[in-house]
Write a structure and sequence with these properties.
Length: about 350
Amino acid sequence: MAGVYIAYPFCRQKCTFCNFASDVSSSDTRRHYEEAMLNEVRAYNWEWLPETIYFGGGTPSLMPFDFVRELLKAMPCGQIREMTLECAPGTVTAEAAAVWAGFGINRVSLGVQSFVTPELRATGRGHTAEIVEQEIGILRDAGIANINVDLIAGLPGQNSESWRTSLDWIERLALPHVSVYIFEIDEDSRLGGEILRGGVRYSATDVPSDDLTAELYETAVDRLAALGISRYEISNFARAGAESRHNLKYWQLEPYVGFGLDAHSFDGSHRWSNPDTLTDYFALRSGVRSEADRVEERFFVGLRLMRGIEPTADEWSRFTLPIGKWLREGMLERDGSRLRLSRRGILVSNEIFQDFIHA
């Protein structure tokens, strides 16, 4: 069954590492955006019933309650099994958690990134580990126990000792799901742009080396596995049964529709996206639409899953060269009829995926 993605691109502050289509905007801009999105959702021709809804951002935990209520009224929600809300630490209150639970939100993803205060301050974050612990307790008291925490390996000032501190907090909080992302140098983020320019702002000179960042990621893999939190996708780890139903749709090429700024959609055959600027979105200009190559994409997204994929005879033939290359280099491994990334291959996955595009 299909999923729905709701993009709410507003934050209280813009983090230095963020390369998303999000920003700090006036209350008037937010209201205009909310009206535009409601119109977009109400005008959509629902040909299927969604199973999951994912409120992403930005900081969707800043959404007004009335706006969320109207959004949900505009969608067919009779078969929803998972409804996720992304939250920034510092935005969770007992009142909000109770309202969210009443809306049917049963999963929350907290953008913690680190539990170490100097690392957080270097990126512009204002929360502390203690605030995260308090807010997780609030969510659990409201009946929302399915909680994810995001961590980023490679933040300025990060080292092996501070990374262990963040992982200690994961154990202490007994979380069912953790996402571990590797910081990528991207010109669209302030920190990434500063690094590319050779500057010193945003603690750019304190970013760990690629080797240390890879070591931090590998440490997380082992530590989380020891806690019973297994890696099921390159960046996602969960206890059995706590995997994100919505995100699995992306990696299994299941359909989903996105509403809002820069939101992407896939109907099984075609992909399209909304404009990535507020000006174009408010003008209702069309996004980009393209035909999907399902075979090509099955390798591109399917190999992100730790179980890998089971290529057909035609796919083995079509991708003989890249498969052979990466098997010889030990970056792919074969288990009977299945193909998956090796532990080493995961660290260079983007390079591997590129070989399956237009092969």
